[in-house]
């Protein structure tokens, strides 16, 4: 027996429900299922008139409602719940069916699940979906990874529900095999953390050094959003800063506890970057900054430590400083994306995914949390030169960051002088200086390693590796 639904969604919490509605609103017949049936009933009752839903009470009913080959989207919590759902549904599926995991899964889990299901002839697609609740309903950015065959059958459906870039292109593309989609989504989230941290630092500097009120800073962000920083995160930052707390009449941002939480995708990005040997220092600082903010006890214990108290500027000096912060923010943002794209390239090489970096930039242009006007320029850079090693080597970006650097340095120096923590700005600047340095102190590190551990070193003037007999006559021996 075969059903009529072209797609099914199981797991109807807000993301799953909105995704199901998005499919239905785009003309697809959608089978819907949830472990507790009340959610299924609620969806059909509240939104049944938006399109064709087929409510299913049991996994068997759900599977029977789907046309063949079946396509079912799993929208449950990443981790064990995903495995539990797969375990429950896999025995009910046939060869050629496609299971799509739309959660924030770890890409290694996705690789394992893909392999296990492939052995049973079932396709498993790990799809990164970005854009939050609103995106799921009105158009997310979708990053599917899996077999070419399954992604080809899914492609047209995903294109219908995805966000569209300004040029009309849907923000979804087959990223690569098995875990490639979830890997790219993970790095997206790492960049999201870095972007948010940089914006937070800019806010802090505008507050403490420029002496602006939250309302004034909201205006600054609004202005920035009309320029090269034009992005979703800058836009919502202005809204958050302009919001007044109803209960106290104070700026909303002042009544929120200053402890940032995290669910783990930023941390994964850094963990994997360490394994791949990719310096994602900006992303790492963002994760650590959240972690530092959360250590209330440590912070309390350190409250008495001495340091400068920022003295706010005023008038034209404050305005000039705000302009400098824009430069620092933009330059640091270029560095975050440079690091993120480096990580995607490294992951793609390590796992043999063949990910097109231009295509990734293209699907991030709309729908996702890090959508930003400048992603179109990143897309052009990689489309023009797919072999481009680093975004910083792209001439237009190199020029912009070069032009921003005086202000960038002034801002970091001023932050250090006034005691305002800017780990994101500073790490980005150090990355830039590290990459462009003629000579790094790594040479000394190598000397030390050779001294205490006979780890050997390479010379600048000859091939091969060498060791100095530090404990003996300090002559040099060739080691290979
Ligand atoms: C998105 C978001 C989302 C993500 C959180 C990160 O792309 O829609 O990246 O998927 O889970 O924004 O959450 P935490 O800040 O809690 O880690």
UniProtKB/TrEMBL annotation:
<keyword id="KW-0521">NADP</keyword>
<dbReference type="Pfam" id="PF03446">
    <property type="entry name" value="NAD_binding_2"/>
</dbReference>
<comment type="function">
    <text>Catalyzes the oxidative decarboxylation of 6-phosphogluconate to ribulose 5-phosphate and CO(2), with concomitant reduction of NADP to NADPH.</text>
</comment>
<feature type="binding site" description="in other chain">
    <location>
        <position position="263"/>
    </location>
    <ligand>
        <name>substrate</name>
    </ligand>
</feature>
<dbReference type="GO" id="GO:0006098">
    <property type="term" value="P:pentose-phosphate shunt"/>
</dbReference>
<dbReference type="InterPro" id="IPR006184">
    <property type="entry name" value="6PGdom_BS"/>
</dbReference>
<feature type="binding site">
    <location>
        <begin position="11"/>
        <end position="16"/>
    </location>
    <ligand>
        <name>NADP(+)</name>
    </ligand>
</feature>
<feature type="binding site">
    <location>
        <position position="104"/>
    </location>
    <ligand>
        <name>NADP(+)</name>
    </ligand>
</feature>
<dbReference type="InterPro" id="IPR036291">
    <property type="entry name" value="NAD(P)-bd_dom_sf"/>
</dbReference>
<comment type="pathway">
    <text>Carbohydrate degradation; pentose phosphate pathway; D-ribulose 5-phosphate from D-glucose 6-phosphate (oxidative stage): step 3/3.</text>
</comment>
<feature type="binding site" description="in other chain">
    <location>
        <position position="290"/>
    </location>
    <ligand>
        <name>substrate</name>
    </ligand>
</feature>
<dbReference type="InterPro" id="IPR006115">
    <property type="entry name" value="6PGDH_NADP-bd"/>
</dbReference>
<feature type="binding site">
    <location>
        <position position="455"/>
    </location>
    <ligand>
        <name>substrate</name>
    </ligand>
</feature>
<dbReference type="InterPro" id="IPR013328">
    <property type="entry name" value="6PGD_dom2"/>
</dbReference>
<keyword id="KW-0570">Pentose shunt</keyword>
<feature type="binding site">
    <location>
        <begin position="76"/>
        <end position="78"/>
    </location>
    <ligand>
        <name>NADP(+)</name>
    </ligand>
</feature>
<feature type="binding site" description="in other chain">
    <location>
        <position position="193"/>
    </location>
    <ligand>
        <name>substrate</name>
    </ligand>
</feature>
<keyword id="KW-0311">Gluconate utilization</keyword>
<dbReference type="InterPro" id="IPR006114">
    <property type="entry name" value="6PGDH_C"/>
</dbReference>
<feature type="domain" description="6-phosphogluconate dehydrogenase C-terminal">
    <location>
        <begin position="181"/>
        <end position="471"/>
    </location>
</feature>
<dbReference type="GO" id="GO:0019521">
    <property type="term" value="P:D-gluconate metabolic process"/>
</dbReference>
<feature type="active site" description="Proton acceptor">
    <location>
        <position position="185"/>
    </location>
</feature>
<protein>
    <recommendedName>
        <fullName>6-phosphogluconate dehydrogenase, decarboxylating</fullName>
        <ecNumber>1.1.1.44</ecNumber>
    </recommendedName>
</protein>
<feature type="binding site" description="in other chain">
    <location>
        <position position="104"/>
    </location>
    <ligand>
        <name>substrate</name>
    </ligand>
</feature>
<dbReference type="InterPro" id="IPR008927">
    <property type="entry name" value="6-PGluconate_DH-like_C_sf"/>
</dbReference>
<comment type="subunit">
    <text>Homodimer.</text>
</comment>
<dbReference type="GO" id="GO:0004616">
    <property type="term" value="F:phosphogluconate dehydrogenase (decarboxylating) activity"/>
</dbReference>
<keyword id="KW-0560">Oxidoreductase</keyword>
<feature type="binding site" description="in other chain">
    <location>
        <begin position="130"/>
        <end position="132"/>
    </location>
    <ligand>
        <name>substrate</name>
    </ligand>
</feature>
<comment type="similarity">
    <text>Belongs to the 6-phosphogluconate dehydrogenase family.</text>
</comment>
<dbReference type="GO" id="GO:0050661">
    <property type="term" value="F:NADP binding"/>
</dbReference>
<dbReference type="Pfam" id="PF00393">
    <property type="entry name" value="6PGD"/>
</dbReference>
<dbReference type="InterPro" id="IPR006113">
    <property type="entry name" value="6PGDH_Gnd/GntZ"/>
</dbReference>
<feature type="binding site">
    <location>
        <position position="449"/>
    </location>
    <ligand>
        <name>substrate</name>
    </ligand>
</feature>
<feature type="binding site" description="in other chain">
    <location>
        <begin position="188"/>
        <end position="189"/>
    </location>
    <ligand>
        <name>substrate</name>
    </ligand>
</feature>
<dbReference type="InterPro" id="IPR006183">
    <property type="entry name" value="Pgluconate_DH"/>
</dbReference>
<feature type="binding site">
    <location>
        <begin position="34"/>
        <end position="36"/>
    </location>
    <ligand>
        <name>NADP(+)</name>
    </ligand>
</feature>
<feature type="active site" description="Proton donor">
    <location>
        <position position="192"/>
    </location>
</feature>
């Amino acid at each position: 027996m075969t059903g009529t639904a072209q797609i099914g969604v199981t797991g109807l919490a807000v993301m799953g429900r909105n995704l199901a509605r998005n499919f239905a609103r785009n003309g697809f017949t959608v089978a819907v299922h949830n472990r507790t049936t009340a959610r299924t009933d609620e969806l059909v009752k509240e939104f049944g008139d938006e399109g064709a839903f087929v409510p299913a009470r049991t996994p068997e009913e759900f599977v029977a409602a789907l046309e063949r080959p079946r396509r079912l989207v799993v929208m449950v919590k990443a981790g064990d719940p995903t495995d539990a759902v797969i375990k429950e549904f896999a025995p009910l599926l046939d060869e050629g069916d496609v299971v799509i995991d739309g959660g924030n899964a770890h890409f290694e889990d996705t690789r394992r699940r893909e392999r296990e299901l492939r052995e049973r002839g079932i396709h498993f697609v790990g799809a990164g979906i970005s854009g939050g609740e609103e995106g799921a309903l009105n158009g997310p950015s979708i990053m599917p990874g899996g077999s070419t065959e399954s992604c080809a059958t899914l492609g047209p459906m995903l294109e219908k529900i995805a966000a569209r870039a300004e040029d009309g292109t849907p923000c979804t593309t087959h990223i690569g095999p098995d875990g490639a989609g979830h890997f790219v989504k993970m790095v997206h989230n790492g960049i999201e953390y870095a972007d948010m941290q940089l914006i937070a630092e800019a806010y802090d500097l505008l507050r403490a050094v420029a002496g602006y009120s939250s309302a004034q800073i909201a205006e600054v962000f609004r202005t920035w959003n009309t320029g090269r920083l034009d992005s979703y995160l800058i836009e919502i930052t202005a809204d958050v800063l302009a919001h007044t707390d109803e209960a106290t009449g104070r700026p909303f941002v002042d009544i929120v506890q200053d402890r940032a939480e995290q669910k783990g995708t930023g941390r994964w990005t850094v963990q994997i970057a360490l394994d791949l040997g990719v310096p994602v220092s900006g992303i790492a600082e963002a994760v650590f900054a959240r972690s530092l903010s959360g250590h209330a006890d440590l912070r309390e214990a350190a409250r008495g430590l001495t340091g400068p108290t920022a003295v706010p500027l005023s008038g034209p000096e404050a305005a000039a400083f705000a302009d400098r912060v824009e430069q620092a923010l933009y330059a640091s943002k270029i560095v975050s994306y440079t690091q993120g794209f480096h990580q995607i390239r490294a992951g793609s090489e390590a796992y043999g995914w063949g990910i097109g970096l231009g295509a990734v930039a293209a699907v991030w242009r709309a729908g996702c949390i890090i959508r930003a006007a400048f992603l179109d320029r990143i897309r052009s850079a990689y489309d023009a030169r797919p072999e481009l090693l680093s975004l910083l080597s792209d001439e237009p970006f190199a020029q912009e960051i070069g032009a921003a650097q005086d202000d960038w340095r002034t801002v970091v120096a001023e932050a250090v002088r006034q005691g305002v923590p800017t780990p994101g700005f500073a790490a980005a600047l150090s990355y830039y200086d590290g990459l462009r340095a003629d000579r790094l102190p790594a040479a000394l590190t190598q000397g030390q390693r050779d001294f205490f551990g006979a780890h050997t070193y390479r010379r600048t003037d000859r091939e091969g590796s060498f060791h100095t007999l530090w404990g003996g006559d300090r002559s040099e021996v060739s080691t290979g």
